[in-house]
Amino acid sequence: MQGVRNPARLKVLTEEQVEAVHDASLRLLGRTGARFDHAVARKRLVELGAVPHPSRTNVLTFPRSVVEEAIRKIPRYGTYYARDPRNDVTFDGEHTYSHALGGNPAMLDLETDLMRSSTLRDVEEASRVQDALEHCHTVSPLVVATDVPAPVHVLKTMQAMLENTSKSVSGYALRTAEVEILLQMGAAVAGGEEAFRKRPIFTLYGSPSSPLTYDEHVCDVILLGASNGVPVDIVPCPIAGGTAPLSLAGGLTQQNAELLAGVMLLQTVDPKIPTQYSGRLSLLDLRSGKNLWGLPELGLVSAATVQIAHRYHMTADVYGVTTDANGWDLQMGLERMIAALPPALAGADNLSGIGGAWENCGSLAMMVLDDETYADVFRLIRGIEVDEDRLALDVIDKVGPMGNFLAQRHTMKYLREGEMRNSPLWDKRTMDRAKAEGIRPIQEAAKERARQILRDHETTPLDRDVGRDLAGIVDEGSKALLRAS
Is the pTM of this model over 0.90? Predict the structure, then answer.
């Protein structure tokens, strides 16, 4: 799986400002600390060097030396494995990848364009579309399967992804029992427990409750996942003005402290476990109470998050395409690009958002549009290459004044090498041709492309025996979870 080489390094923070956020985060952890509502997690962290807060329940503070030692142990980037090894993603701090949004409770229907509750079939189809899209490098559960009982959402979602893509999968779990069954599923597909431990084909994530709290279930998922070799991404989601300071610097500081607290918990299991710095600082509309993503400030804090993550040599996974618009309009396109470009230009390793529409709604058509948007973003960050052949002095001399370059081999060579990107989706026809052939909104072209993928794209199927074993694990696990609910 090839990302795009990213030489761009936009700096929205100076090095001194990055250090100021880092230093403030350590002071915050040393004075205020973080809450862990999990006795085993607290015990592990105290053994690491954390100190129980003198007055706050379940809160631990972290001496600066303890945090700095943990930072030194953070593994540099890491590889996320896929069912097909050709789809493995290796983060190295020099390439950028992208992936879908995850966990929407609604779907924008491909045929009616109306919002409705999302279903298991939507999870399956979204996974197939992600499998087909060139610039969607890993697969996430775009929506929630609300048509199956809540206790089995996690299992059915993972099964749908594993059956419909051979790319690396981003999973989730809410409690220990679900993690245990997911591990069985992973082992069945990977070829056994030892094979899965060597090449875990899915990741999990642990998301603290802002401000500065890791609840019991999140700690369970982090500890059990990491103890079985599964990469666990730490995903702090503070909301500036609501669950974090409205000042962007304050929000970044709190986000960083929450991230480092989670990293330290991970390290009590295995310091070598890969993890991403998945900072998700957003902003609150203080007029309506709505969480906002389609702002220039979101692009700024995402780019700043990239810089902070790279200070620790961590994979920076941040917001990319996103919007606050309520329909297919100009605002939607402008906001998605203004949110994605700054972190991309800052050198983000992983950009999210593919397929997220509006009002917590997923969309297959938006997936297609976002894939195309990222193709443009990746072309921008690839930049301009300059060498003797590209300077083209001999070709310019050959053509001479008042000539043209249409018939030159040099022109065709660089067209084929992607010097100028030719989009298969954006409408680049002349106006006369467009009028003659018919003009249609871009979302209609995207819908047709999504339908074509669902009709024609063939994912790499699971081996028949593996598929049967996987289904058996899901059935038995579902029964157990339903009994316990």
Answer: yes
